[in-house]
C-alpha cells in the first residue's frame, strides 16, 4: 500500500518570546492543492506560525516537514533552498517592495539572482506572463511603490511570489486592508492561479466568515495550540 505524505506537516511546535509562550504543542497538516484556513484573533500566534513556515525564525521545539523531508526543527536550521517553495504575501504589501526603486528593478533583481531566466528576452516574457496572470499592465512596473494603489501593490506582491512557483502560498491577513470588492477579486485570482499548479494556500485571517467560505480545512487557535474544525 502506498502512503501519501501531506505536503507540509508541523509537529508539536513551540515558540516563546522573552519568556512569553506564544505557540505550544502546535501540529497541523497542509495537503497538496487545498485551501487551508488559520483563524484566530490578532496577537494569538498566527503570524508567528507563518514565520516558522517561511524560515524567518526557528521553533524552540518541534519540526516542520515538506514533502516528507525535514524543513526545519529546533535543532536543525531552515533548508533555504527547499523553503523557496513556501512564499508569503503580507498584510502590508508595500513592506515587501523597495520604496526607492521602480517595481521593474525589484523584479529583475529577483529573476537574475535566482536564475529564473537565461537571457533578457526570456526575462521579458516571464514578466509579461506574470503581469498577465495577476491582471496588471506591464506599464505599472515603471512606477515606484508609492505610486500604485493598495490593490495593485497586493497583485504585485502576489506576482513576486509566483516567480518561485510556490507549492504553498501564505496569505497573512493579506487582503484585510482592501475594500470588499477588491478583496474578493484578489482572493479569486490567487485561488485560480494556485489551482493551475495544484499548489496550496494557507489563508490566515481573523475573519471567520471569510475562512469558512473559502477553506476546505480550518485550524482555530485555542490557548496557544491549534484545533481542526472543518474538513471537506
Protein architecture, described:
The strands form two sheets. Strands 6-7-8-3-9-10 form a six-stranded mixed β-sheet, with helices on both faces. Strands 2-1-4-5 form a four-stranded antiparallel β-sheet. Strand 4 (61-66) and strand 5 (69-73) form a beta hairpin. The protein has helices at 46-54, 80-83, 103-113, 120-133, 150-162, 180-196, 208-214, and strands at 8-17, 20-30, 35-39, 61-66, 69-73, 86-89, 168-172, 200-205, 217-222, 225-231. With 232 residues, the protein is of the alpha/beta class. The radius of gyration is 18 Å and the shape is globular. The protein is built from seven helices and ten strands. Helix content is 32%, strand content 28%.
**End-to-end span in angstroms?**
24 Å
- Please report the number of helical segments: 7
User: Rounded to an integer, what's the Rg over CA atoms?
Assistant: 18 Å
Overall shape: it is globular
List strands and helices in order, with pairings:
Elements: E1 8-17, E2 20-30, E3 35-39, H1 46-54, E4 61-66, E5 69-73, H2 80-83, E6 86-89, H3 103-113, H4 120-133, H5 150-162, E7 168-172, H6 180-196, E8 200-205, H7 208-214, E9 217-222, E10 225-231
Parallel strand pairs: 3-8, 3-9, 6-7, 7-8
Antiparallel strand pairs: 1-2, 1-4, 4-5, 9-10
Amino acid at each position: 500500500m502506498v502512503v501519501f505524505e501531506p505536503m507540509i506537516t508541523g509537529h508539536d511546535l513551540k515558540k516563546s518570546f522573552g519568556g512569553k509562550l506564544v505557540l505550544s504543542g502546535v501540529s497541523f497538516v497542509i495537503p497538496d492543492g487545498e485551501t487551508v484556513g488559520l483563524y484566530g484573533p490578532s496577537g494569538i500566534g498566527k503570524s508567528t506560525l507563518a514565520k516558522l513556515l517561511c524560515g524567518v525564525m526557528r521553533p524552540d521545539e518541534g519540526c516542520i516537514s515538506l514533502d516528507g523531508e525535514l524543513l526545519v526543527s529546533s535543532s536543525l536550521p531552515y533548508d533555504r533552498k527547499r523553503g523557496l517553495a513556501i512564499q508569503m504575501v503580507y498584510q502590508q504589501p508595500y513592506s515587501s517592495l523597495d520604496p526607492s526603486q521602480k517595481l521593474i528593478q525589484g523584479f529583475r533583481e529577483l529573476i537574475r539572482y535566482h536564475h529564473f531566466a537565461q537571457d533578457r528576452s526570456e526575462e521579458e516574457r516571464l514578466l509579461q506572463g506574470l503581469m498577465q496572470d495577476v491582471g496588471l499592465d506591464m506599464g505599472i512596473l515603471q512606477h515606484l511603490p508609492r505610486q500604485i494603489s493598495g490593490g495593485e501593490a497586493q497583485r504585485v506582491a502576489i506576482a513576486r511570489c509566483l516567480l518561485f512557483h510556490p507549492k504553498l502560498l501564505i496569505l497573512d491577513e493579506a487582503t484585510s486592508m482592501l475594500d470588499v470588492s477588491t478583496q474578493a477579486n484578489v482572493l479569486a485570482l490567487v485561488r485560480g492561479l494556485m489551482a493551475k499548479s495544484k499548489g496550496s494556500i494557507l489563508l490566515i485571517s481573523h475573519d471567520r466568515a471569510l475562512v469558512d467560505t473559502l477553506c476546505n480545512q480550518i485550524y482555530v487557535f485555542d490557548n496557544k495550540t491549534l484545533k481542526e474544525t472543518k474538513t471537506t
